[in-house]
Design a protein that fits this description.
With 194 residues, the chain is an all-alpha fold. Helix content is 79%, strand content 0%.
Length: 194
């Protein structure tokens, strides 16, 4: 991979990682589908990600996506799922970033995958957990389906943009992260004034 390809792949990976912070299984499902349909050309032959380009991977990820989307509409179950989804989102973010960077120098691939992919997925997932917790506390879970719908839309939109326009999606994901971190810092300053 040349430098331009690495930058585009990294932006795609970061965007997919951000999307997996909203929903764990949708971004890997759509990426697997795109790889399987040769919409995205990534040669996974002989890599540890070779399974990703199989029909069974597409089917299993598709089923997991539908179950995850439905489960987040059940109050209290959505909060329980967050305990599983938080580490899973980081793993998905790292994996998808590594997959799209296949063919680059392994040090570059895994450094970007772990730091950027895992970090972005973790930040987004943490924000969704906090939002859902707040929603549960304030509305006894009655507003959680609205939160789930917003998260579903964000995950679908960010994943599709990542696959079609990785540079734009990467910039958008970075802006989302920046805004979330800035909001968190402001709330911490208000909660704990120095």
């Amino acid at each position: 991979m040349n430098e331009a390809d690495i930058i585009l792949a990294a932006m795609m990976g970061i965007s997919l990682a951000a999307a997996s912070g909203f929903r764990v299984f949708l971004p890997p499902f759509l990426l697997s589908l795109a790889v399987r349909a040769d919409f995205i050309e990534i040669d996974l032959t002989g890599t540890s990600f070779e399974y990703f380009d199989t029909n069974i991977a597409v089917i299993l990820l598709g089923v997991a996506t539908v179950v995850e989307f439905a489960a987040f509409y059940i109050p209290w179950v959505d909060n329980l799922l967050d305990t599983i989804a938080s580490p899973a989102a980081v793993i998905a973010g790292v994996s998808m970033t590594a997959i799209v960077l296949t063919g680059s120098d392994p040090i570059v691939q895994w450094t970007i995958a772990i730091i950027a992919g895992g970090g972005v997925a973790g930040v987004i997932q943490t924000a969704t957990v906090a939002t859902r917790g707040l929603s549960t506390s304030l509305t006894l879970g009655t507003a959680n389906p609205i939160v789930a719908t917003a998260e579903n839309i964000a995950s679908v939109a960010l994943t599709i943009v990542a696959l079609l326009a990785p540079l734009l999606a990467g910039i958008f994901a970075i802006v989302i992260i920046f805004l979330m971190v800035r909001r968190w810092v402001r709330s911490e300053k208000q909660t704990n004034p120095a």
